């Protein structure tokens, strides 16, 4: 897999330096101790202000955790290890010494052996130096029932939030630790992924087949509790949500949900997954939601995790309180989407329908031609674009053909106005928009002849679209055809110039407009523009009596 990095050893320090240079790091600093001591802390922190410090950390590769949550209302410092490796005792002790005053500090630790040991040893050394230190261990993973050591995963971030809020309020160390521990005890999480993660291993090979995913996984690339078959998003979300639901005690308790991106799941899919969650039985118990967002990732894992925390009034207030770190995206009430009425839009079919048998026949033949050529035009477009030109023209044909009985076919000006509104409402892609502009402009024209009005429409297309004849677009077929139409040429000549314009695009070495303009010269050789080809085939189908 292609990755952006210099060396694996320098990855974490260089990433932390980048964080400190970014807007998210404007209020942060670090201890001078690279490479062994990688501690990020609040730049505004005053040990003498009488507030408890909250420190967390662990292996890197989970960004934005942990350094991304350092700031007012959350962590005072984050101690960062190497990739998926606990930081050493000296690094943790340095972090404790840097931020701990008389009020003491709380360590929030994920339940992994290395983290428990190293943070625990550092806490003992700090206590021996006279500092007050408490530790809360988070084990929120529910995927291995009966296991004595549940893993600490994304729910740790909610404990950061709760502890940070309580510490910011000026509470004592005992109070902060008790509150954080209570939140940890009420928190449970489960993850689902369609991939494992690659720890910058040149020999990496996925353990999952193309049709497999995993349910109940940690954040270090370890195998999930179950292999699962791929399914649609709703079914996969139901697996995760139902697994959480089964662990909840009976009663009417309300919960906060955190939907976490485990690494590389696209933003649009994460939003879709939240909508899928809304259809689950568990959603009826949710009162607050955070995300979807990356909170605790696992490098490039393509998956998500769900975290629930049982709410009290105090916990709800802590989770909703404003904080400094921008990685915490906030928590808001769970609600139905707000929908407001669509403003009144122009009536597409404002003109009375009328018939023109010859024109109706021509429209049907043109629509049939575009539909029959959908796949061929898509294949042509795939060579130079995104492969949807045929589908876009076919959709335009379906829209017009489906509205034939409502069109004023006997009134050219009203017909063009109606087509302009119809395509604006229903046709897609740039070609649909351009054709809508053509007809809308022609329909407003003061020209007595509809052929001349179409030329005005083409001028509007050029103005909005930015293309000219010779730029290797559909205009190379459309302009000469409409020009010949305006001049009263025979249909055979109109078809000939349309076909000639389309064929000429295959000999144009460089496109000057449209998506093909981004294709390097040489890759377009002998490939006609799909839009021009669609126009040529359309005019060929419109030959009277064909």
UniProtKB/TrEMBL annotation:
Keywords: ATP-binding, Kinase, Nucleotide-binding, Transferase. GO terms for biological process: glycerol catabolic process. Residues 7-328 form the DhaK domain. One of its GO terms (cellular component) is cytosol. It comes from the Bacteria. This is DAK2 domain-containing protein. Residues 357-544 form the DhaL domain. One of its GO terms (molecular function) is ATP binding.
């Amino acid at each position: 897999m292609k990755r952006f990095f210099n060396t694996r050893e320098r990855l974490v320090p260089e990433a932390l330096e980048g964080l400190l240079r970014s807007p998210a790091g404007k209020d942060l600093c670090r201890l001078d101790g690279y490479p062994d001591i990688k501690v990020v802390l609040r730049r505004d922190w005053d040990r003498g202000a009488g507030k408890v410090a909250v420190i967390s950390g662990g292996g890197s590769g989970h960004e934005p955790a942990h350094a991304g949550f350092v700031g007012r209302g959350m962590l005072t410092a984050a101690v960062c290890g190497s990739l998926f490796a606990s930081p050493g005792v000296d690094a943790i002790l340095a972090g404790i010494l840097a931020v701990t005053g008389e009020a003491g500090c709380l360590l929030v630790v994920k339940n992994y052996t290395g983290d428990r040991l190293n943070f625990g040893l550092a806490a003992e050394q700090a206590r021996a130096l006279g500092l007050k230190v408490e530790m809360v261990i988070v084990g929120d993973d529910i995927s291995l029932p009966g296991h004595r050591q549940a893993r600490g995963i994304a729910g740790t971030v909610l404990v950061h939030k709760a502890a940070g809020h309580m510490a910011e309020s000026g509470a004592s160390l005992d109070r902060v630790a008790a509150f954080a521990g209570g939140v940890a005890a009420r928190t449970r999480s489960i993850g689902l992924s369609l991939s494992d993660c690659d720890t910058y291993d040149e020999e990496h090979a996925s353990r999952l087949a193309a049709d497999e995913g995993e349910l109940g996984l940690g954040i270090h690339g370890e195998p999930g509790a179950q292999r699962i078959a791929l399914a649609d998003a709703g079914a996969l979300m139901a697996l995760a949500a139902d697994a959480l639901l089964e662990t909840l005690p009976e009663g009417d308790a309300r919960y906060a949900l955190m939907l976490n991106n485990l690494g590389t799941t696209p933003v649009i899919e994460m939003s879709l997954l939240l909508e899928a969650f809304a259809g689950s039985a568990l959603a009826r118990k949710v009162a607050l939601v955070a995300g979807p967002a990356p909170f605790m990732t696992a490098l490039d894992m393509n998956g998500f995790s769900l975290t629930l925390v049982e709410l009290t009034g105090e916990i709800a207030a802590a989770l909703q309180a404003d904080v400094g770190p921008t990685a915490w995206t906030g928590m808001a009430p769970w609600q139905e989407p707000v929908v407001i009425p669509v403003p009144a839009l122009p009536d597409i079919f404002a003109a009375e329908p009328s018939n023109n048998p010859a024109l109706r026949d021509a429209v049907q033949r043109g629509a049939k031609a575009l539909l029959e050529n959908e796949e061929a035009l898509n294949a042509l477009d795939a060579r130079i674009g995104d492969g949807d030109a045929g589908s876009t023209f076919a959709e335009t044909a379906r829209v017009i053909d489906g509205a034939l009985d409502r069109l004023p076919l006997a009134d050219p000006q009203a017909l063009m106005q109606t087509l302009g509104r119809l395509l604006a409402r229903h046709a897609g892609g740039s070609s649909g928009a351009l054709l809508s502009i053509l007809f809308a402009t022609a329909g407003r024209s003061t020209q007595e002849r509809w052929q001349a009005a179409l030329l005005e429409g083409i001028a509007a297309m050029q103005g909005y679209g930015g293309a000219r004849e010779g730029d290797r677009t559909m205009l190379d077929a459309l302009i000469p055809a409409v020009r010949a139409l305006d001049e009263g040429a025979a249909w055979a000549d109109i078809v000939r110039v349309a076909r000639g314009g389309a064929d000429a695009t295959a000999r144009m070495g460089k496109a000057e407009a449209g998506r093909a303009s981004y294709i390097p010269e040489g890759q377009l050789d002998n490939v006609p523009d799909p839009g021009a080809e669609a126009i040529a085939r359309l005019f060929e189908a419109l030959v009277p009596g064909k």
